[in-house]
Every structure is written in structure tokens, then in C-alpha cells.
D-arabinose 5-phosphate isomerase (Aliarcobacter trophiarum LMG 25534), 320 residues
Amino acid sequence: MNYKEIVKEVLLIEAKELEIASSSISFDIESIVDLIVNSKGKLIVTGVGKSGLVGAKIAATLASTGTSSFFLHPTEAMHGDLGMIGKDDIVLGISYSGESEELIQILPHIKRFNIPLIAMARDENSTLAKYSDYFINISVKKEACPLDTAPTSSTTLTMAMGDALAVCLMKKRDFKKEDFASFHPGGSLGKKLFIKLDDLLRKENLPVVSRETKLKDAIIVMSEGRLGTVIIEDEENRVIGVLSDGDLRRALMKDDFSLDCGVETIATLNPRTFDDDNLLASDALQIIENYKIQLLIITNKNRELKGLLHIHDLIEAGIK
């Protein structure tokens, strides 16, 4: 049995159904989008079985892209949770057959409060469709299941329709990356857009020495600082140099190397510094990668040290 061919066939069948649906969009998407955007309430998604599982995903996608939404199971609604639906809310009911008993039972109660109902089903003459104010057709010609029975192509199309609705709403609201990140502060995008350099900056117990410091004493400070670097300041506390472990290794190769030499004699003088601690951490990482350095030295306009940021600090914070 060639399983790769089976996988290929399933993907092609489902892709074909999506293509067919994309060429025959007959529902009033403009009115649906306007209805949701202008609503003062929430968009409540409901359904049972596979439709319910897909509906939960659709609700999650909507909620993360600017539409206040949650999933409500019809059975739970019949046993008290119907009160979770407010008069300003909108209901999106999903049932491929349009006849799911648990869902049909709550429809009269929804309509009794004049709550707008958007239906996703295969048949516009189904009970769900007849109760609805707006009908989205999710019929497919063929399920990917070899018996043409298990929800496969139909659930894929339903999920895709939910994604399409979410994208339409994002476009209508001019939803941007910054908006998405605000709903995902713990995600990688949220970290990129919200964590600033100052949030990660090391400001205390920094490895700093004066320009008169002997190399052997600077090495002790370097070891205690655990950054592989020593910052050198002049008499007015301005950053004038940096001694890295690389500088130290290169100095060790010289015939006249001495631990009693001044740290300034083997250091890198006039190092690159940055005076904007409001930089985003993601921008700081970009700077580190562009200049092929491991440490950012942050100063004020007078080159007085404010803090240090090592590339490891960014990695540990999940900045990529």
C-alpha cells in the first residue's frame, strides 16, 4: 500500500473542494462583516461534534484577531449557559447537515431575543439555515474519507471559511501586527513588538574599570562580571574602551605581554556605543547580528555608561 499516494490524494481532494468553494462565493460577506464589526457584543460560535471542534478553533482565531468571541456548546447552553448570550451578541451556528439536534434545540431561544444568527451548513433549506439571518454554504462534493462519510473535506472547508471571515474582519478593522501582538504578549511576535532594550538591560554590578587599572586587576573584574568583557572609563566616567576576552587572547600572543601593563594598552578604544535604551529588544538583536558583536554598550549622550546587554540576555528572553 502506497501511503504517500494516499496522502497526496487526500490533500488534492480537499484542495479541490476549497478551490470549488472559492469560485462560488454566493453569501453576503459584506453584510456579515458589517454586522460583526458594528456589534456592541460578542460573536458566539456554537456547534457539536466535529463542527463544534472546528467552531472552537474559529472562535479562538477570531478572539486573537480583534473580534470578541468564544465557543459555546449547545448542550451546555440548554443547561444554563444560554445566559452567556447577551442581547447585543451575534451567534455563528455550525452544522454540516444543518440538523444537529442539540444545536437546533437552542435556535428558538436565540431568535426569541432577536439575536442575529449566522449559519454555516451545506443546505440552505436545512433547519439551521431557515432560522438564520445569514447563510454560509459549506457543502462539498466529496469527502476525502474513502467511504465518503467521515467529515474531512467538509471540516477543512468550514475551518477555511472561519479563517476567511477572520481575515475579512482584520482587513475591515485595519488590524496590524501591533494589535495581534497585544493579544499574544507571551508569543514571539509579542516579545518582538513590546519588549524594549531597557527591559533587559544589565544596570548593576557592571564590569567597569578606570583607564589606570592594571591588566591583572581588569582580568579579575572580567571574571566576576561573567560577560567576557570589561568596560573602561576615563576620569569623567565616559566610556573610552572595552577589553574583551578576544583582546586578551591576542595580547597573550605578543612577546612583550605583561599582566602589569595598563588595561588601556591592549583594549579596543572608542568602541561602538548606543544611546537609545528605548530600542526594541528585537532591534537590539538585529544590531548585534549586523555588527557581529556579542555585547551592546548603552550610554547617555555624554557616553556615560547606562547598562550592558549581552546576546545571551536576548536569547534567554526568547527574542529571535
Observations:
- The domain at 3-175 is CATH 3.40.50.10490 (Rossmann fold).
- The longest helix spans residues 153-173.
